[in-house]
Structures are given as C-alpha cells and as structure tokens.
Design brief:
The chain has 477 residues and is of the alpha/beta class. It has two domains: 130 residues, Immunoglobulin-like (Sandwich), CATH 2.60.40; 280 residues, Glycosidases (TIM Barrel). 29% of the residues lie in helices and 26% in strands. The protein is built from eleven helices and 25 strands. The strands form seven sheets. The protein has a six-stranded antiparallel sheet, with no helix packed on it. It has a six-stranded parallel sheet with strand order 15-16-17-18-19-20. Helix 4 links the parallel strand 16 and strand 17. Helix 3 runs parallel beside helix 4, helix 7 runs parallel beside helix 8 and helix 9 runs antiparallel to helix 10.
C-alpha cells in the first residue's frame, strides 16, 4: 500500500511539473502592454494562402528555457516568435521587436509574450493544440481556425522608401534588407539621390556607384529614381546647357538599369518630393521635356498639399498623403489622365510609441478610396546620438534614446549585430494585404458600398476590432 501511495504521489508530481498553462490571446492592433486587446472570438479567421497574427501571453513562475515548439496543426502553418517587453520613449511597456526563438531560448519569470503567425494552407475548420515545451513545464493552447475557401493571391503595391546602407540600422546589411523587403512584398524601391550623378557633373565613379547599388536588387516591380537636386539648382534648371547635359544623364542612367536586366518599363523618374511653389510648374516642364527624349519614360511623385494637386496630370504614379484632410478626395477628382494613385503617411515618430492599428488603417483607407497602393515613411529612417552602441553589440531596441529634435525613429525594423529584426508595426503594415482581402470579400458578398463603409468605420475607429474579426467568419465561404 505504501508503494502504491508513493507511485500515485510521483504521478501527480510529474503531472504538476508538466502542467498545462492556458495563455491569453490578443489581437495585434495594440502594442502597449497595458492596452492589449483581448481576442474575444473562439475562432481565428485566416485567408487561404494568407496569414493572421495573434499575441500569446503566458505567466512563468520561474526563469525557463524554451526547449521546443510544436505548432500542432497538420493542415496549416504555425510560427512562434518572442515579443520582449521594451520601453517606448515615454517609458511605457510595449511589444514591438520580433525575435525568433531557438532551442534553449531564455525566458525570465513573469509575463512573457509570443507572436503567432498563422498561415492558412487548407480551407475549412482546423482545431488543434500548440505546445511550447519549457525546462519545467509545457505551455499548451487550444486553437480553432477557419480558413477561407477563396484564396489570397494579390498583394497591394507598397513603397516604404527603403534605402540601402542609409544609416546605422541598415549599414552593410544590403542583402538582408532586400530579402526583408521581398518577404514583406514591397513592390517599389526608391533609388536615393546620393547614388546618382549630378546632371551637370556625370562621373564614371557615380555611375559605378549606382551600378553597385543595384547589385542584387532585381525583381521589384518599380524603381523610383529620386533625384532631388533640382530644388538646389534653380538658376541652372532647364537652361539650354542643363537640357543638353540632362539628355546625356538620362541616357546613361537608363543604361545602368538596363545592364542590370531592369527594363525601362519599370523605371519611374522621381524629380521632386512633395513639390511646392515653383517646383510645381518646374515638374510639369521637366516631364514635357523628358518625353521629347524618351516618350515612354514614366514619372512618380508625391503630393502632400493642395498646391501640388495639378502635378497629378503629369505623373504615372502619384503617392498622396492621406493624413491631410480632403487631399485624397481632391487628388482622385483631379485624376483625369488615370494616374495610379497610392497613399502614404509620414507622421510615425518614435517607432514603438505608434500602435500597429495606425499601420493597419492604411489598408482600410485604401479600400475607402478604392485605390491599390500604400506605404509609409519609412523603412529605416532613424537618428540616435547613441547609435555607436550598435557597434558594441547592443540591440537597437536597447539603446538609450535621447528625446530631442535631433533624434528620431520612424523605422519599421530593429538591428542587433548583423541581423535585422521585424516589428509588430512592420507586420501590421504587411498584413494590410490580408485586411484588403477581407474587404474584397465584403465587396463580393455585399457590394462595393458596403465594403467602403466597413473600411471607413475601421479606419476611423468606429468599428470594434473584435466585431470585425467575428464578421470575417461570415465571409469564409
């Protein structure tokens, strides 16, 4: 009898040490720990060939090491990442940087957060249990998915002004940057002014620099050649001598791209950014003159106020600042020559201080305006007086940020050593593609006006995100 009791005790001790801890699931719309949005639905809607994200929160009673992860589904793909708590510039606890988990990954006592990326491979319902095996116990979570019959197939056109070797976040990481951009389905890259020769001073050295910059950068849909130097050359711009040099400059620039097997049809000249004043008429004059050299050459531009609306008549792609009241409506009304209109926004200072919802809103605004492209400034725009700490092995999310006008962080990514790490905000921007899919399903089932109505409510915060997730289940078939 004594032996039996010892056996029973051993059994319950073993059961305790391998106890199941059910964690909470949150939506990715909010990243501040104190304001996380609990997922109140029992089923997660997923687009077939698309994805959805959830935040899993668990409480650890002691420090642990992650031994292994088992997604649990035989039908769909489940990926696990760690979301460490970081500090915003206002000292709030937030989740933003996304870290891959490996065997023996260290986790500290207390609340820990993980990102689940759930990819829909097979239509229908899928019920399973995922398991995170730790040193002393197992975290288990029952999940139910509903994967749509309709397949996600078309990504929206995206531009995030992603310069290579731009600053301390991306320096010497060009191949990683390109891989990251392609994995997030970025369609367009901007060629920055600093790798382009001056129109009045074309040197082999600069042409070689441009050629080198393009190494490994094939495969994008659009190449936006941003030469912003016109603003600083008002006295020589479009003079007879300048025009003569410009013909040579344009021919040599196009040749560099063509030598990299990048077709001229993918090239867009981008002479002015957010033109104002005399730049508005200068842009129109430049387009007319350029068409006499290469009639089929195309132009890209940005519009940030009503003054520049008239430039739309000269552009093939125009990205309109959708955060300016009434500007997008005016742009669409003025688009008599059927330029491709995309939207963009720029006011995202201090990185993790911005909720992922702000980036998701861009997808909703796309549908609201019935357009097909979006983006933000910018992929890696960041300045920090303490950036040299990167060279000493410190992660960018651990750096001391100086709160003054000379320091800023609009970046979608983080860096440690020679590795780039994504953010919740970057994934939210990317998953705008999947949100667009669901809004397209609304259009197919209920009509365009209903889809636009939902998009407007979502972008304005007038539709509860849990209600939207629940409504998606009506769109599965």
């Amino acid at each position: 009898m004594k032996n039996i009791n010892l056996s029973i005790l051993f059994f319950f001790l073993l059961l305790f040490n391998q106890s199941v801890a059910q964690g909470n699931l949150y939506l990715i719309n909010e990243n501040r720990v104190s304001k996380l949005i609990l997922d109140k639905n029992n089923i997660i809607p997923i687009p077939k060939n698309g994805a959805s994200y959830r935040i899993l929160q668990v409480n650890l009673k002691s420090n642990q090491k992650l031994i292994s992860f088992f997604g649990g589904s035989n039908k769909n793909k489940i990926e696990l990442f760690h979301l460490p708590i970081i500090k915003t510039i206002s000292n709030e606890n937030a989740l933003d940087v996304i870290l891959p988990v490996t065997k023996n990954y260290s986790l500290t006592k207390g609340n820990q957060y993980f990102l689940l990326k759930i990819s829909g491979n097979q239509s229908g319902l899928d019920n399973f249990m995922l398991k995170i095996n730790l040193t002393d116990n197992t975290i288990s979570k029952n999940l139910s998915l509903a994967v749509s019959n309709s397949s996600f197939s078309t990504t929206k056109l995206m531009n995030v002004w992603s310069y290579f070797d731009y600053n301390f976040l991306v320096k010497d990481l060009k191949s990683s940057v390109i891989k990251d951009l392609k994995s997030h389905k970025v369609s367009s890259i901007v060629i920055p002014p600093y790798v382009l020769p001056e129109v009045n001073n074309i040197t082999n050295g600069k042409l070689i620099q441009l050629s080198s910059y393009l190494n490994g950068a094939t495969g994008f849909d659009n190449y936006l050649i941003y030469y912003g130097g016109f603003k600083n050359n008002k006295n020589v711009f479009l003079t007879p001598k300048w025009k003569q040099n410009y013909k040579s400059w344009l021919g040599q620039i196009v040749r560099v791209f063509n030598n990299k097997n990048i077709s001229t049809s993918k090239l867009y000249l981008y002479p002015f950014d957010e033109p104002k004043g005399s730049n508005v008429s200068q842009l129109r004059d430049l387009v007319k003159f350029t068409k006499t050299i290469i009639p089929d050459i195309k132009f890209f531009g940005t519009v940030s106020d009503l003054e520049a609306i008239s430039t739309i008549q000269s552009l093939d792609i125009v990205q309109v600042h959708s955060d300016v009241p009434g500007l997008m409506e005016s742009a669409i009304k003025s688009n008599s020559k059927n330029a491709k209109i995309w939207l963009y926004e720029t006011r995202f200072p201090n990185a993790a201080s911005n909720s992922p919802q702000r980036y998701l809103n861009l997808a909703y605004k796309m549908k609201k305006y019935n357009i097909n492209g979006y983006g933000v400034w910018s992929y890696a725009d960041s300045k920090n007086d303490n950036s040299k700490e990167i060279n000493n092995g410190k992660a960018s999310w651990e750096m001391r940020w100086v709160n003054n006008s000379n320091n800023f962080n609009n970046s979608l990514i983080y860096r440690k050593g020679n590795q780039i790490y994504s953010s919740l905000r970057w994934e939210a921007l990317f998953s705008g593609n999947f949100e667009s899919f669901w809004l397209d399903q609304v259009q197919k089932k209920y009509g365009l006006s209903k889809s636009i109505n939902y998009a407007s409510k979502l972008s304005n915060g007038n539709l509860d995100v849990n209600s939207w997730e629940k409504f998606k289940l009506n769109l599965i078939n």
